Amino acid sequence: MSLGSDLTVLEELTSNAKQIQDDVLTEILKANANTEYLSRFLHGSSDKELFKKNVRVVSYEDMKPYIDLYIKWLCSSGTSSGNPKIFPANNIFFEKVLFVSALRSLVMSKHFDGLKQGKMMRFVFSSLESTTPCGLPFATSTPSFIKSEYFRNQPKNLTSPDQVILCPDAKQSAIYASGLLQAIHFLENYWKELSNNIRFGHVSEGITDRGCRDSVSIILGEPNPELADVIER
């Protein structure tokens, strides 16, 4: 998603927050007024004042019976209680993630020279999914997003193929799991192996994920000793 070259949209979002929040609430009510939960209070109406009057503030436990009815969940990566929470998500959520990602890139471009020219290093990874007691999968928002059609179909300037990004084994996909420190630690342990892979155009035998292996093999193609020498230095 492109937001242009300035921060006008960010200024609009932050200077008119109340109206934007009211619009978001209206949008949610119009889409959900007839759901099992809200229909008890709104009877099909999307009126904001009726919502404020009839719908009380609830806790996670109050909503859990409804959440258990969903077949697609995300897991919070942080919470005040110390325990991750599972919550439902739909395609609108991923559209909002795209918007936030574009806005974040715009802010970063304002403060860091060269980002628009590709002078940056970005690590993208997909962690393993977990399952609920009944066997349905859930994951945190980032892995869920990069496995979605929104990530696959948007224009990307990433070096790694999607198959590598989606590989759940960090040792095979050469990505970091929680921070730059782990990425540096990985390079410390495997830089010789990576150099040899590039030099001889051969993927290490330890890479057993078929999608990851095949996509990188295509990129490696012929041996490239000059690039390997740069990595070694």
UniProtKB/TrEMBL annotation:
It holds the Pfam family GH3. One of its GO terms (molecular function) is acid-amino acid ligase activity. GO terms for cellular component: cytoplasm. PANTHER family: AUXIN-RESPONSIVE GH3 FAMILY PROTEIN, GH3 DOMAIN-CONTAINING PROTEIN. This is Uncharacterized protein. It comes from Arabis nemorensis. The lineage of its organism: Eukaryota, Viridiplantae, Streptophyta, Embryophyta, Tracheophyta.
